[in-house]
Design a protein that fits this description.
about 45 residues, mainly beta, three-stranded antiparallel sheet, two-stranded antiparallel ribbon, 5 strands, about 0% helix
Length: about 45
Amino acid sequence: MITLKVPSLRKPYPLESIVWLEGNDNYVWIHFSNQAKLIVAHT
């Protein structure tokens, strides 16, 4: 299983659960297949 490790979180996320990534400056919204979304800030 291929995963995405998010620097600010401990748990890696499987790529199969990610629908799309939406970037805006230093922020990225991660949209999941279960309708959840997560915002990550990293420079």
